[in-house]
Amino acid sequence: MLANIGFPLEWNRVRAEPLPTLRAAVMTWLVRENPTCLIHPHGFFVVLLGRTETEEWRLHFWPRGPRAVSGMPAFIHTHNCHVESRILKGQITNVLYNVATAATGDQPLYEVSYGGDRYAAATSNTLRKTAARVKATIQRKCTLTCGETYHVERHAYHEAVVSDRDITSTLVCMHGRSSGAVAVVGIDGYSDTVTFTRTEHHALNFAEWLLP
Fold first, then answer.
1. pLDDT tens-digit profile of 89-104?
2. H helices present in the chain, as ranges
3. From CA 158, how far away is CA 137, in angstroms rounded?
4. Predicted TM-score of the model (pTM)
């Protein structure tokens, strides 16, 4: 079931909606529902606005200042779905990578698994090292500002970069999920298996991150 924010959560509608209207609708929903959110391993907050068999809708919040990273500080990753994002506040740099198998050297490749519902705080998140080593090179880098949108293809390697001087929030639609594994370009020196959980908070505590 998807959140009722005053109009349908449909990507074509969300990408075209005037930004003040969209921000106000999301803020009203946050105040009314006071949902919980989880801290993503990369240090931003994730609020689930709902999911169906074909889509998941989320709010992402990056606070200003240092951000706590869980598990492994490895940021180049894939999704097993297409990702659409609209910037509600601040700015973000989306970096796409070409990732190729390397015979020796470079970086280990990990795969991600979940011990249950990924939106439950008690669910274990596990990174497992594969036999592969890879080399990542930047293919394209694009900085997007408030109101703009960007798209990440399913299984494309990317990194979302937000300066710790910025407060940024995005509205995200994830769709077209496949059965393929989520991959992370890892870092040497970590165990073959890295397991952690996500901390839960009340999203309303961060509602001011939507304000212009």
1. 999 999 999 999 987 7
2. 11-16, 19-33
3. 11
4. 0.93
| Helix H or strand E encompassing 201 | strand 200-202
Please tell me the distance from the alpha carbon of residue 38 to that of residue 203, in angstroms, as a whole number.
9
DSSP 142-196: EEEETT-EEEE-TT-EEEEE--TT--EEEEEEEE---SSPEEEE--TTS-SEEEE
Q: Locate the DSSP E strands across 18-148.
A: 36-39, 45-51, 55-62, 82-89, 91-101, 107-114, 125-145
Q: Are 133 and 101 in contact (CB under 8 A)?
A: yes
Using the predicted structure, report yes or no on whether residue 202 has a pLDDT greater than 90: no
Task: Report the DSSP pairing between strands 193-196 and 125-145.
Answer: antiparallel
CA distance 17 to 13: 6
